[in-house]
């Protein structure tokens, strides 16, 4: 007994040591984005980093400088909704890092927090599905030593970094802790990960489905799914694979419905927690026509840059070619095109074999990995399962196919770990071989992943920040973030608010028609105005129609009354004196009420006795 406990303790110490080493690896790769903690993050005009820095800085200003709930961003493209944007970060607890340390340093610490969370979440999920303590780290190794997440950091797609919440949500669901599962899912969205919320919901929904069918029959689904994932580019196999898949589905038999009950509780609680986001976002999406279902699915056939063999459109024409692209350093790193890049083919091959093996031995886990594999390849697989998925409400608006690679990259890592455990249990030497292969892959891939995120310092010769200037709209080479730091608006910039073209009446300093940020129509004169992240205060010397140089949007009011519009701008007929224009997103009050109730449900459920049984039993290896 004593010997067994000591061995368990030593294994635990070894596992913790590996986890700390992986966190150290993530920090070394990150290296403060190639600068230091305080140095400004390199970004250019209209780049993703420019938008992320702007949104975080405007939110910070609203809280710290103006002491209000920031609902409107007056600094970007003539004014855009802030709180209603799905990437609005205020309600996410780690935003306190930005409040305490400022936007630049706070975001860098924010990134480090989430890489550590990813290592922890992948390990806990690995243990949940039965992997040994060392092999459970396979998913985090796969993420850190491939291109997707590091390139997201370098590109400014930090809304994907809260990926670590999804394995935690999955584990909580499997353990029957629906309140914690809902909380983890909600946190992924509150951090800006609206993609992640859908991926997490799909992940848990698939677990509920596979957990409800007879596992002895479920494994027969692995065969057509494995063939579909393997036969990339072989569209001619679509009909026979689809027929085999239909037969395998008809062969299934439901054995338990308990998982759906937990799934229902999880979904309803998550909807409550996200009430403030879900209640305010529709108006923004509606104006941008994002609530119109897409009519086609993008296909994972984007190719590397010109000059790379094979040339378009044959990048994913066969499994061998696809594998060569995935191991190529020339694949695009933007996160918009193509699949993940692993810098070597063997992790993908071994990981896929491991996923297939899991799907046969432990169908409730491995089948999820196979399905995400097919989703991530879109139309490149013989049976385009992604097209079927996008017939579901909500998923028809998420058309960026390759980002499903985020999930199947985790399963590739767990698949490698599953194979390592399988052979190590038979001969210890195979465990040593698996460890040596992992170290070799880290050695060749980690430096390349590091280069993808080390953007370096801001280029020299940037425009000097303005000081003691009143708020006004500018155009030119200055980035939006630089303009915000100078208390200036940026008219000629891009925004993820998905607005229509800016209002035709907008103007900026230097244009012939610029009349100030607020003016009276008759008599024609500029009037003083102060701008915050939810209000605009104007002082009128005489009564008249005042025009504000900001986009009109549903939710604006002035002194409690509706606001009109003039050439797309805010306008109102007002008497002389001081008046306050206020922006409140439609649905804000009901959304906040729902979120507060959701928090109450989570806290109350945490105090109640455990009344719901886990959906699965885990049997982790030592």
Key terms:
alpha+beta; 2 domains; 5-stranded antiparallel beta sheet; 14 strands
Which structural class do you get from the secondary structure elements? alpha+beta
Tally the structural domains. 2
Strand content: 5-15%
N- and C-termini, Cα separation: 15 Å
Give the overall shape, derived from the CA principal axes. Answer: elongated
What percent of the residues sit in helical stretches (DSSP H or I)? 40-55%
Radius of gyration: 26 Å
Averaging pLDDT over every residue, what do you get? 84
Based on DSSP secondary structure assignment, what is the total number of beta strands? 14
Q: State the helix count.
A: 22
Flag low-confidence runs. 288-302, 304-313, 331-336
* Largest sheet strand order: 6-5-9-13-12
Biggest β-sheet, characterized? 5 strands, antiparallel
Give a short summary of the structure.
With about 625 residues, the protein is α+β, with helices and mostly antiparallel strands. It has 22 helices and 14 strands. A hairpin with a 2-residue loop joins strand 10 (about 555-560) and strand 11.
Task: Describe this structure as you would to a colleague.
The structure is a single chain. Residues 288-302, 304-313 and 331-336 have low confidence and may be disordered. The chain has 2 domains: 2-34 and 84-453, no CATH class; 473-583, no CATH class. The protein has helices spanning 2-34, 48-65, 96-101, 103-128, 138-144, 148-155, 165-174, 178-190, 194-211, 215-218, 222-230, 238-250, 258-273, 275-287, 319-326, 346-361, 363-377, 385-389, 405-424, 428-453, 480-485, 588-607, and strands at residues 72-73, 80-81, 473-474, 489-490, 518-520, 525-526, 529-531, 535-540, 544-551, 556-558, 561-562, 564-566, 569-574, 577-583. The chain is an alpha+beta fold and 622 residues long. Helix 1 runs antiparallel to helix 4 (103-128), helix 4 (103-128) runs parallel beside helix 7 (165-174) and helix 14 packs antiparallel against helix 22. Strands 6-5-9-13-12 form a 5-stranded antiparallel beta sheet, with no helix packed on it. It has a 5-stranded antiparallel beta sheet with strand order 7-8-14-10-11, with no helix packed on it.
């Amino acid at each position: 007994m004593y010997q067994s406990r000591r061995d368990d303790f030593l294994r635990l110490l070894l596992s913790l040591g590996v986890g700390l080493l992986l966190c150290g690896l993530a920090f070394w790769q990150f290296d403060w984005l190639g600068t230091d903690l305080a140095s400004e993050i390199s970004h250019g005009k209209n780049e993703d980093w420019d938008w992320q820095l702007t949104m975080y800085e405007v939110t910070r200003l609203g809280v710290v400088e103006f002491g209000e709930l920031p609902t409107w961003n007056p600094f970007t493209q003539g004014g855009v909704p802030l709180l209603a944007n799905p990437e609005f970060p205020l309600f996410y607890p780690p935003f306190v890092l930005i409040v305490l340390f400022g936007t630049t340093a706070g975001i860098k610490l924010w990134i480090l927090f989430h890489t550590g969370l990813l290592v922890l979440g992948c390990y806990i999920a690995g243990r949940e599905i039965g992997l040994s303590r060392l092999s459970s780290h396979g998913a985090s190794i796969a993420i850190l030593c491939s291109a997707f997440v590091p390139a997201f950091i370098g590109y400014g797609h930090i809304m994907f970094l809260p990926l670590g919440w999804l394995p935690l949500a999955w584990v909580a669901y499997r353990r029957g802790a629906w309140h914690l599962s809902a909380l983890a899912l909600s946190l992924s969205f509150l951090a800006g990960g609206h993609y992640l919320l859908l991926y997490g919901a799909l992940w848990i929904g698939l677990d509920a489905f596979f957990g409800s069918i007879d596992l002895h029959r479920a494994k027969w689904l692995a065969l057509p799914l494995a063939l579909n994932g393997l036969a990339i580019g072989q569209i001619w196999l679509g009909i026979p694979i689809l027929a085999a898949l239909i037969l395998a589905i008809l062969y299934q038999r439901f054995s338990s419905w308990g998982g759906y009950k937990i799934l229902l509780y999880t979904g309803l609680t998550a909807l409550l927690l996200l009430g403030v986001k879900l209640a305010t976002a529709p108006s923004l999406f509606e104006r941008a026509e994002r609530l119109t279902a897409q009519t086609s699915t993008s296909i994972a056939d984007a190719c590397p840059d010109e000059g790379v063999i094979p040339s378009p459109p044959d990048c994913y024409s066969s499994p061998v070619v696809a594998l060569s692209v995935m191991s190529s350093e020339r694949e695009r790193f933007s996160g918009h095109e193509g699949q993940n890049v692993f810098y070597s083919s063997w992790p993908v091959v071994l990981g896929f074999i491991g996923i297939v093996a899991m799907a046969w031995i432990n169908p409730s886990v491995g089948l999820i990995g196979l399905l995400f594999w097919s989703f991530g390849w879109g139309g490149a697989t013989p049976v385009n399962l992604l097209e079927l998925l996008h017939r579901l409400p909500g998923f028809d608006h998420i058309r960026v196919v390759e980002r499903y690679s985020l999930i199947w990259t985790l399963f590739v890592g767990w698949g490698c770990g599953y194979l390592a455990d399988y052979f190590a249990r038979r001969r210890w030497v195979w465990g040593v071989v698996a460890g040596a292969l992992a170290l070799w892959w880290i050695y060749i891939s980690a430096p390349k992943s590091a280069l993808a995120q080390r953007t370096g310092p801001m280029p020299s010769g940037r425009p000097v920040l303005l000081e003691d200037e009143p708020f006004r709209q500018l155009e030119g080479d200055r980035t939006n973030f630089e303009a915000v730091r100078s208390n200036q608006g940026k008219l000629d910039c891009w925004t993820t608010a998905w607005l229509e073209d800016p209002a035709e009446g907008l103007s900026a300093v230097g244009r012939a028609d610029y009349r100030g940020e607020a003016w009276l129509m008759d008599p024609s004169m500029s009037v003083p105005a102060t701008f915050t992240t939810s209000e605009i205060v104007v002082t009128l010397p005489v009564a008249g129609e005042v025009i504000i140089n900001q986009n009109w949007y549903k939710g604006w009011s002035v002194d409690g009354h509706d606001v009109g519009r003039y050439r797309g701008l805010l306008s109102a007929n007002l008497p002389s004196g001081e008046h306050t224009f206020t922006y409140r997103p439609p649905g804000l009050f009901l959304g906040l009420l729902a979120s507060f109730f959701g928090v109450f449900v989570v806290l109350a459920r945490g105090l109640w006795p455990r009344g719901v049984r886990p959906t699965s039993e885990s049997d982790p290896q030592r």
